[in-house]
Every structure is written in C-alpha cells, then in structure tokens.
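User: Hello, can you help with two protein structures?

Assistant: Certainly.
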Amino acid sequence: MFKIGDTVLYPLHGAGVIQNIEEKEILGEIKSYYILKIPISDMTVMVPVDADVGLRDIVDAKTAKTVISKIGELELPSETNWNQRFRDNMVRLKSGDMMVVASVVKSLLDRDLEKGLSTSERKMLMSAKQVLVSEAALATGEDPQEIEKELYKSAGIEK
C-alpha cells in the first residue's frame, strides 16, 4: 500500500504524487481511494486502493535517464495492420513498464515520420509520450520540456 507523498506511476495517465487517501461512497459502496495529482497534465485522479491498475513506484533517476537516452536504440515490433498494432500498443502501455512505453513512443514516432498516424494512433502517441515524460521528469527533477527535447534527440528526430 502506498502512502501520502509517494511518487507513483499510473500507466494510463502518467506519474504523480499521492496527495491524500480518502474514503468515498460511490454507488452505495464505501472504498478507499488514492488522490493522485499528476503535475504534467495538472490532473487529479482518484484510484481505488484495492484496484489492480498497475500503480507502481516510479523508476529512479538513473533508469529514467537511461531509458530516454537509449530510445533511439530500441527494437521495434514487426509491421502489422493498424488495428492489430493499436491493440498491441494498448496492451504494452497498460503494462506501465517504462522501457515498454518508450518502445511504443519510438515506434509511433517512426511511423509518423514514415507514413503518418491515424487519429487514434496520434492520440495514443500523445498519451504515451505524456506517461513517459512525466515519469522521467518526476524521477530526475528535470523540466518536462527538456526531457521531451532529449527524447526527440535520442530518437533522431529534429523538433
């Protein structure tokens, strides 16, 4: 169980700090919720304490810097149709593993440069990038915009 002040990653929204743990009655049922503040998107999220949603401690600064700096070297999945690729990427994002999220970002960035992205994949890229950058920024204490610049540089993309 996490405590107030812990820095955690919520795979679908990014990294944040547990601001509070509250009991709420929703649909007639009282449950405990983490109140998670996600600074990069200025969002507050309620996450059930007992739900298995992949909530985990963020990585350390060294790991975050390594993942961002190595993004250009990541192995990318083989080509599939967009529907299968989208489903595969969604499963990978839900894992919450920083290296796996980085590989989704890299593959979508590459695809965007080569052929462009569908609207759904573009939204997925933005979300995956937010998750990756938010965790790296909280882990290292660096500015998210600087992290994103480093990500693009490492991926070999001029931005």
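That covers the first. Now for the second protein you mentioned:
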Amino acid sequence: MPRKVSSRRDRKDVSECIIFLGTGGARIVVAKQVRASGGMWVAINGTNLLLDPGPGCLVKSRTRKEKLDATKLDAILLSHKHLDHSGDVNTMIEAMTDGGFRPKGMLFAPAECLESDPVVLRYVRDYVDEIHELREGGHYTIGRVTVSTPIRHQHGNAETYGMVLTPSGQGPSVAYIADTRYFPELADAYRGDILILNVVFLTKRDYDHLCVEDALKLIRAIQPKLAVITHFGMTVIRAKPWEVAAELESAAGTRVIAARDGMTLDLHLESEPTA
C-alpha cells in the first residue's frame, strides 16, 4: 500500500520528450563510463518521470546546456536493483525534494529494492509523498499518465519489470523493455507507439540481456512507430550503435534509432532527435 507523507506541489507542464541521460549498459561500460549511465527523463502529458537513475544521473542532468530541475520531477521509477539502474536513486530523491526540506513526489520500485536487498536508503523514504512496490500486472497513476508493469522479466535473480507509459487522452505511448533475457511473451506485453529496448549484446549469449537478434524479433512483432535501442555493452559500442540501428531498420521495416548520451527525443516524432 502507498504511504502518504505530504501533498505534492503544483506541477508545471513541459515539452513532451525523452532525454537520455545515459546510454551505457553492462558493468564495464558503466565502470569506465565509456557511455554515461544516468537513465532517462521522460516528460509526458505534463508529467515528469525519471527512469532508472544510474551512476551520474544528477551530474548529467545539471551539466546539460539546458539544465534539468529535479524539483520538477513527479516520480522516480526503478526497473530493478542493479547499480547501473539505481546508483543515483537516493541522490535524485534528495534533489527532487530540495534535500528533503520539501517532501514531494513518488517512488516506484520492485519490493526487493526496498526490502530484501534495499538500494533505497531508509532515511530518504520519508522525503517522498508515496512509495509503491511494482508487481507483475500492475497499473499505477502518476499525474496524467498510467504506468503499467505487464510482465516480470527474466533477469537472473533480480526482480525486474519493464514499463508501459500511457498518457490520459491523446498522445503517444512509450514501452520500455528493461534488462531481460528474450522470451516470446515480451512482444504482447510491450505494445507502444515508441518502443525503447535495452540491447546489451551484439550477438546471442547465455546471459540475461537482449542482443541485436532479440531486438529484431521484438521490433518485428510489436511494430512500433519508432524503436530506440539503448543501454549498450561494449560489443554494441564497438559495432557502432547507429550502424546497428540502421541494419535493424532495414531488416524490420520499422524506423529504428540508436540513443546517444544527452539525446532529446520528441515524443510526437515531429522533429529529429537532438544531442
């Protein structure tokens, strides 16, 4: 059950976009910061969401040419406990709440992020208005957006969920397939206008992450208006992600782009992504 602490401050509408504060995945890429690992800032239907704030999220959000103001966040969401997805969650909770002096916002995370193997420190939990435990088949309301977690991922022993963000009324939906081994049920679970896939490996490995071949299967099955690959390991980085995306686009018959650190993607697809 959510825990109520205090009322949120009024929210200001913002441009609808996804800002990629980091596109690196896998431990070596993150440890060496070959690519940044700050997660994604999603501004959708007047609601500001921060997804998977890995190491460097705060720095990346504040060193952009157009700085992001964490106090405008409505919620922070973790797909799972691994540090490349959660390393800055406590820092960003403090930033969202003015160091805890102005409690606000919501936190969404799998139960083990809060209980059995907690990555969210207990003292910062009092800084947010509500805490929700993500579950398979869950539906949650944040401002004018519904967030669903349709299926538990196969990602080792880490409790992991992707997310589908659906704005109330008109507007594009965003499906985010977080870290997982490929399995066919993913395609039915993640129908969205924009599909974001964490693609760590270039070729298939016996490991709980998607490879390029897996991404192609999912893009073909889901047929989004746009697919975005991100969260790259070294094999994809060496292969040049933009070239990998071009090959996926040719094979899938669907527009595919590779995310770049700092990239801003217009959710209505009315302009090209900008760095």
